[in-house]
Amino acid sequence: MGLGITxxxxxxxxxxxxxxxxxxxxxxxxxxxxxxxxDRDAGPVLLFVEGSAGLGKTHLLRALADxxxxxxxxxxxxxxGAEGGLPEExxxxxxxxxxxxxxxxxSDGDELRRLRRVLEGLxxxxxxxxxYRPEELPVPGMPLGGSAMTYPFRLTVLRDRLAxxxxxxxxxVAAEALGESCTAExxxxxxxxxxxxxxxxxxxxxxxREQRPAFTGTAAEVAAAGVPTRLxxxxxxxxxALSPAHRPLVWAAAVLDGPAAGDELIAVSGLGARxxxxxxxxxxxxxxLAELGEGRYGFAVPLAAAAVRDTVPGPxxxxxxxxxxxxxxxxxxVAWAAVGEHHRAAGEYRGWLRAVxxxxxxxxxxxxxxxxxxLLERTLATPGIPxxxxxxxxxxLARNAVTGLRSDQTVEVLExxxxxxDLPPAVRGELRLDLGLMLSNQMGRFEEGWRVxxxxxxxxxxxxxxxxxxxxxxxxxxxxxxxxxxxxRGWLIKASAAADDSGDDAMRTAVLANHxxxxxxxxxxxxxxxxxxxxxxxxxxxxxxxAARGLCNAADSAVWLGFYRRVDxxxxxxxxxxxxxxxxxxEHSASGTRLLQEFWTGQWLGLAKRCEEFVAxxxxxxxxxxxxxxxxxxxAVAQGDWGEARSWLSQRGTFGTENLPxxxxxxxxxxxxxxxxxxxxxxDAAEQARAAWTVVAEKGVWPWAAELAPWAVEALARAGxxxxxxxxxxxxxxxxxxxxxxxxxxxxxxxxxxLAENEALAEGRPDGLLSAAEAYRKAAAVYAELPRPxxxxxxxxxxxxxxxxxxxxxxxxxxxxxxxxxxxxxxxxVPAAPARDRxxxxxxxxxxEACARHFTELGAVWDATRARALLRTRQPAKKxxxxxxxxxxxxxSPREAEVAxxxxxxxxxxxxxxxxxxxxxxxxxxxxxxxxxxxxxSRRDLAxxx
Length: 946
Prior knowledge:
P-loop_NTPase; flat; 3-stranded antiparallel β-sheet; mainly alpha; WH-like_DNA-bd_sf; 62% helix; ATP-binding; 5% strand; nucleotide-binding; Helix-turn-helix transcriptional regulator; 946 residues
């Protein structure tokens, strides 16, 4: 074989994108090589660079050829194994020369002898870089042949080894090739599949870039892309260079598809101990396999296993998989999912399904529910699964799906399974039970979930009392719209009897947990005693999970009742118990309860961000974050961001708001009615009030009307439907009876005050307005006790407004104003207070000033602006102020600042006018003045300018 030599002048060479990184790995060798050309006293340098196929040896040589220190040096490329000739004694060698020798492992004996003579004759001012694949050297560790070389005394000999790319380097190359499709998941898969070998990375990226449909960045797409041609040809050439007697060992490595011990490879190959050991040595010598760690063998590039596996004859491949399943079954701990895949590939379907079951059970036991769900879904979707296997695997999927956090994909799988007529009735009933729970608790499809649970209870009543009790217990839960409180009480009686018949402690605890939720919801006097009966110290994980749910149910009900000081202890204990017992759904639902408590108790700092983060964390199950949506919407109402408010209150279209739990739906409806009233759309507000009230009345859990009642009563009263408004208040009072429900008691007082105010305004009775003011103050006092600072400030504002309106009504009467004049609050016309009622006016002003401060402290921009606007209609002018309007030159006036702030929040001119008791034309003028003074280009720009 001849020598391939290329003589190039100074500065010639190509540096590819990988070159800089490759040469960076040989920093010390690079410096020594460069010194050979810059230091006159330095001797020649010989640099050996070893690297497996694809690690970038040629790229390194190109980078070395472009070193700045070699700009005046002749460079000679020697491609071993190529045709050509090399002058042995020539003036070329007597001038400074950089010799670049590529792939020395390809040299035959004659070529090696000639190369050794050249290297032994290197003169000062010259250097050589020699690359080779260590796995392909005839004699390991001897790149220049089997005999020791005589190195000149002044020759510096260095050796460096190229390494695969780390994940960061793979990420940089992938980002350049894939752009936006370069996800962290894809990078990790690329690094794992290629082992970081640069050539394999670049070739696989080229395949992904040309993929159709377009690559989206998933690990599954990387796995399915196939094996690059260069890599496949290399590994197959090495494999089939082995004798037929030795190839089964490489096939075994391809089937195991990962680092394996030598005895495992031999066992899977079926060769026996002595032939297998010999085959392993031959495979390592030929570089068909590599040692990947101490005593662990496999392919240097993991992708290569697929190329080899595809060439193994089918019957042989099945035998290999069969032996692989047995070998992996002896590992500890057993990787059951992998064992199952080998059984399946071997055609052993019973073994496959048993292994899948064990893998899912193992994953569930360690809390890896999503892993178990994915495995079971994939298995059950396979055609031809025997009914008995479906009967074992389907309930396992359902249990994981209900306990963990899962999307509607599992619901679809369960809906398909329960239609399977071959399933035993008990199994189908259990699956239907879990499907009903998922539809109700995790998907928010209450009506559908209720029907499914009723059918499940009937199916299970005769065959499995424990599961029948579980279905009945689910029907005890009162949060869903539709069934009345009496219906839930009926199911409680049935569930308690079934749980007692079952003799199952966990089932008794589950029924007790739901009994707690039911009793707490309507303020049953024995509710707190039921909470104390929850077995929070139980060592049974199933009992502990149910006890945790009971505590969190109690905390949620305590929030709606208004027992905010008790919530912290219940939530803390419930969440800790849920964590210990492995109940992630309960943990997340407790987080939603915490957000509600923080809103009602005025802990608004950072609350909007906490809501948004919770929504993002539970994006695959938006119903779970419905509390966060509503709280975020309530904050937006108070801040005057009404567009955002409607979006959040409607759950941003993630699911129908008619499916919200009753207390949450009533709260959202109350906020929407309030917004509609603020926009002077009274008829629409009244219709919304009637619809929302019907839902609460049908349920019959009257404490849940607390956040709806004041706004619903106001909407109907202002619409002129006073009869229905009175009926609402009457039903609310009767429904509450003597129940210990502080928040509802305060809301009832508020609702009565609303009725009194509207009747007094309609009849023009100042004394009635003063009575309404006192009613509002009583409600504010109850809210202060809870504490609920925002509700307290709202009702205090109402009291101040009524007092001022009473004063104004007396003033109009004393001045002979015509009777039947329009309502003061709706028109915004509030005459100045006469001197005789200054004490009443001063008291009302003090109330309004206090609530304006409270609104501001909370961050309720809209409410604070409204309160200050009302104050300005009645506050006397400050002493010492000169007559006429104050001059603000280029500064915003107080009124302009208020208008600008509301405008930047997204309110229309009409909405701002209603808030500030101004005409839309005046609002328009104020906005124009604010934009002129601030230089704002639009209403949106105004938000940044102010």
